[in-house]
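Sharing a chain and its predicted structure for anyone who wants a worked example. Both blocks are below, sequence first, tokens second.
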Amino acid sequence: MSPGDFSLPANGYVIDGESGAELARLLGQDHLLTACLGDLLPKGIRLAKGKAVLDLACGPGGWVLAVARRYPEIQVIDLDLSRKTIEYARSLARVQGLENAAFVVMDVTQPLDFPDDSFALVNGRLLMSCLSSEAWSSLVRECLRVTRPGGIIRLTDCERGLSTSPALEELTALATLALKMAGHSFSPDGRTVGITPVLGRLLREVGCEQIRQRASVLDYSVDTPLYGPMVQNAHVAWFLLKPFLLKMGVVTPERFEELYRQMQMELLADDFCALWFYLSVWGRKPGR
């Protein structure tokens, strides 16, 4: 079959986003990503009292909840396509008493239902898993429209990781190929994800100024602080990715099970080493 036979919709998340296991995994992943990036926001970005912040398609809202807790004087809005996910995020905000956190059901591949110049900051993290390559440009244009003059658009995404586990390396190669076949990749050949080199261009194309970048690496080798959480994340993520990989036709059920069991053992090896790579890019909307 040709790659086009396997394409997903522009807003198709490659994992069942309403799975309870995935909601819990995403909350943990938010903490891991923030730890890797060093903080919730890059140095030099300050949120003024009374301003509003928008977060795009961030699942159960881990980043939004953390920002709302740190900055009680600003309004933080999260949007996601899944009603179940939004309801889950709202329940977390209520339990934590975060009245300045709001959650809205909305499709990021459609025009955003906000007035022009609404937000001081628009934030998007790890959108590649739910956004086709063709949908990025229109979304970034919408981000610019709803950002206030002088406000910031920030995009953060990842590239495939590296490890000493043969099984994990094969699974990762299968996943990047599947993303390419599904239309969720900027890679020319499916060997990488390919989004990180494009982030700066996307901001430049809509006219953003003062564009900056920060690369980060998450080390989850044995005996590092993030080893345990990342290994747990890997166990859940690859289990949940199985239907996507089978749908894309890149692996048989039997081969997947063999690789999954082998990966679990190899992640426990005394000499296991692994890195995951992220790039955060942000720029200012002209004017002010």
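Comments welcome. Residues 3-284 form a domain with the Rossmann fold fold (CATH 3.40.50.150).
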